[in-house]
Amino acid sequence: MRETTTASWRTLLTQAHDALRDAVAGVGGSQAWDAATPCEKWSVTQVLQHAAGDQIAYAAAITGGPWPSEDPFSPSGRIEGDPGAHLAAALDASAAAWATVDDDAEQVPVPLPQGPMPAWLAAGACALDAGVHAWDIAVATGRPSPLTPEMARPLMEVATRIVEPLRAYGAYAPALEAGDDADEVAVLLAYLGRRPV
């Protein structure tokens, strides 16, 4: 049975957006922005730029509006102004775009090579991106995981449907072994190529 139902995909996306917003709000002084993250070779600032760019890309795909001004897969590591405001603008654009999508739409444009997807899967892909990068930032800055088992279950269902083709583009690292005693969050993270901490 599908975990990410048409009734719940909006909740999942809101939870993932909130997790990313909270992770960024919790970043401490200037040194923390330069801290290494689970995303190889990327600092906290670069992960934020990537995550914000991805949210803008989802909004652009849905609405035909502007795409990110910087390549999300080649973040500069420099943000002009307040990082929280930078993210807020991206999340606001994403949320406004998703508000225009019908709950049970079958063909929602996405900025992924797979092309249009049903609303639940497209929104799940957007939530997966926000949620896992929230985890990256939280872990890099010494804070607990923002992912919950309630989020991990539907995100794992989405991940198993979209991630494999994206690994060839470098969007996700190869899957890792989670271990027999891993919880749902750890299983999701390992599948996405991250070592749970």
Query: What is the CATH domain class?
Result: Mainly Alpha
Overall mean pLDDT: 93
- The CATH topology comes to Four Helix Bundle (Hemerythrin (Met), subunit A)
> Strand count, sense and closure of the main sheet?
none
Q: How many strand segments?
A: 0
Helical fraction equals: 40-55%
**How many domain modules?**
1
Percent of sequence in beta strands:
under 5%
> What's the overall geometry?
globular
Q: In CATH terms, what is the architecture?
A: Up-down Bundle
Account of the 3D structure:
This is Mycothiol-dependent maleylpyruvate isomerase metal-binding domain-containing protein. InterPro entries: CHP03086, DinB/YfiT-like, Maleyloyr_isom, MDMPI_metal-binding. Residues 13-138 form the Mycothiol-dependent maleylpyruvate isomerase metal-binding domain. It comes from Microbispora siamensis. Pfam families: MDMPI_N. The chain has 197 residues and is mainly α. The chain has one domain (9-191): dinb family like domain (Four Helix Bundle (Hemerythrin (Met), subunit A)), CATH 1.20.120. The protein is built from 7 helices and no strands. The protein has helices spanning 9-25, 30-33, 44-63, 83-98, 119-140, 149-167, 184-191. Helix 3 packs parallel to helix 4 (83-98). The protein starts with 8 loop residues before the first helix and ends in a 6-residue tail after the last helix. The mean pLDDT is 93.
